[in-house]
Amino acid sequence: AFITSAYYYPTSKSLGSNAVAFNMAIDQRSHSMQNHTFTVIGTNLTTSLSTVATSQAEGVGNCRYTTLMGRTNTVENLKTLEIESNEMTVQIPFKMARYTAPKPVIICISPQFVAEQWQIFLMHVHAANRFGGHLHIYLTSIIKSYFELMQEYERQGYLTLDYWLRMKFSNIESQYFDPNANIEWRNQAGAQTDCLLQYKEAAEYIAFFDMDDILFPKNYPTYLEEFNAVLATNPGTNYMFYGRREHEFVKNCHFSIMNTNTFSAPTLSEFSFTELVDSLRSSKVVKRGKVVVRTDAYNATWIHYSKHVSFMTRANVTSPTLVHVQLPVEKDGKRKNTSRNMWKIEFGPLNETIREDDIRAIEEDIYRMKNVSTIQSLAPQLPNADFYLPIVFKCYYDAFYGVAFDHQPGDVGCLNADFCELPQRENYKCIHSDAQYYSGPSMKPVTYHFTSHSFWSKDIGCY
């Protein structure tokens, strides 16, 4: 098992006092895991307490590994946290849960890898800021200049950056299945559960979105007011489910004669939120949605919702839908990224509400940030062509989209991008998350692996 995080709560509205919660990726098909329980030992300066943690898995059955959250209550003023099995123990690192949040609505962005789409980031971060949301962004790998752009937005208070690490075992005494290749979508559910555990006591609402899922509130000026109103009109509910409507938009791009597999993107100085919104076109295709939850309603989550929370407590929101901006086109309406033409979707007029005063305010906010000296200096270094996007989309299409939506032959196995062949780049360097990796002693039935001292590395590359 690979432990991605553990948190301690001196007090908790839903977990009780002196609670601990740990988040891991674990081999769910191992016969030795049947009926397995997790014994946790918490110790302070004077006392040790052994308790049995309750657990819940949030993955899918067709992947070898699943995301699992365990929780229990332990001693006050916790100093060390251990997991015990058959009289063997391993001490695991833990962090204090957050008790304050930058804003009442936290938007947990699923882990970004070979990230280069800074235009979609600008669209999302400024929209979220306008409506009272704060982005918490997990990064595995990202183009260096794009990373520096995010760092400036973090300094300005728009977002929080966090590490999402590839899982590695520093010491192995038996054969194993590679967890990175055998867990759904880079352990996205683990990242979203980590975000939930971090902000559970600090935020009023937590949204679990992708970077290209953007919500424009329809009836109220802020997310907080909109969410409160939705739940108030649906008595007995404590979380919301928003569908994701496919959209295309113009990135103000022109064809690059340097590489026929890419298309050029606008420079930062040319980026216009107003023009981008004017170019948005909606489809009738609404994909499986994402949730926004009251923090006391969830203890863990899957990619789309928790499998352990009743649908009876869910408010299904049919309008607005999330604006899923996955399909950029050129000004002539064509796509140089021809892999996207495989997925046949028709688009028509925009059917979402984006208010004019919000558009003006967001444009003014973008203009202000464009004139920050740090951003002015790094703007010319931002990538002007999409390189990884068509490769990743083709990989995803072959693995899932083609079979699921276009009746292409094949079976949907463990949905994962780890098998995608993604080359390194010489002209655009990447920042990659890294850490010190540790393996605990060999234990039956589970040996635990974990990390500490995460950092941003320039040495790994883009992939």
From TrEMBL:
Subcellular location: Membrane
Signal peptide (from-to): none
Membrane topology label: Single-pass membrane protein
GO molecular function: glycosyltransferase activity
Keywords, ordered alphabetically: Glycosyltransferase, Membrane, Transferase, Transmembrane, Transmembrane helix
Primary localisation category: membrane
EC top class named in words: transferase
Family stated for the protein in its record: Belongs to the glycosyltransferase 92 family.
Record PANTHER family: GLYCOSYLTRANSFERASE FAMILY 92 PROTEIN, GLYCOSYLTRANSFERASE FAMILY 92 PROTEIN-RELATED
Name of protein: Glycosyltransferase family 92 protein
Provenance organism: Caenorhabditis briggsae
